[in-house]
Amino acid sequence: MVSGHRARKRFGQNFLVDEGIINAIVRSIGPRESDNIVEIGPGQGAITGQLLDACPKLNVIELDRDLVPVLLAQFAKFREFKIHQTDALKFDFTQLCGTDDKPLRIVGNLPYNISTPLIFHLLSHQHIIEDMHFMLQKEVVERLVAGPGQKNYGRLSIMVQYYCQAENLFDVPPDSFRPAPKVDSAIVRLTPHKTLPFVAKDSKKLEVLVRTAFQQRRKTLRNSLKNILPQLEGQEIGIDLTKRAENISLEEYVTLSNQL
Question: Which CATH superfamily hosts domain 9-192?
């Protein structure tokens, strides 16, 4: 742990200290010298050092200004190591593509309180991203990878899987951190689809449809979407509206969205 620096609750800081887990994360990422890697929330540099050994050109985004000089001193020998002291939620990731338009590989131990909005922010940049590897609350990872009929299946599952393939790689116990969080964590890999498996005519309309359906997830689609369905009157929908939101597949949501 960096001398004199305490984890800050307002930044959601829990610093990874388990060398075995650190090594497993880096192996899962498989950094290459030519990669354009961006690390969100490097903290005290647990993963950063191994990433730099493999890929000396590295951009990191760190909100805690007190960690910036510590990280700069720790990795001073890497001339292409660059820190952006800013909020990742407000950061324009397109500026990191460079003149060669090399896609980004994004890595991060994301604070639990911003993980979902940050993932949605990154999905708006999915066309410039090769893949993403995140440490998240285990429950969030289970939501990302869930399929129809599973208890964690919801808006996050559908919208992330619309843009990406989601893989739950492995769990990380609380004692891998200092301070130890009160929840289990997991590593997820998100790989943007090169070609969307199902194409929505209007992705914003799809988002509204899915959000509306899951606002009253215990109701049937006929009831939860009653303000939207009149637009489809007289059309052959081809979807069982007596089902609940959690039993409708991504493909069916896209089909319904395209009929609106």
Answer: Vaccinia Virus protein VP39 (3.40.50.150)
Tokens 């493909």 correspond to what residue? 251
Candidates 43, 39, 19, 40; CA nearest to 31 is: 39
Fold match between domain 9-192 and domain 203-259: no
Q: What is the pLDDT of residues 17-52, one digit of tens each?
A: 999 999 999 999 999 999 999 999 998 899 999 999
| DSSP code at position 103 | P
Are 52 and 58 a contacting pair, CB within 8 Å? yes
Domain 203-259: give its CATH superfamily.
Answer: rRNA adenine dimethylase, C-terminal domain (1.10.8.100)
Query: Domain-by-domain residue ranges, the chain?
Result: 9-192, 203-259
Each residue's pLDDT tens digit, 132-155: 999 999 999 999 999 999 999 999
Beta pairing class for 129-137 and 185-192: antiparallel
What is the widest separation between alpha-carbon atoms in the chain? Answer: 69
* C-alpha pair distances (Å), 59 with each of 49, 137, 184, 219, 228: 12, 24, 28, 46, 44
- Angle at CA of residue 22, ends 17 and 27, nearest 5°: 180
Q: How far apart are alpha carbons 36 and 71 in whole angstroms?
A: 19
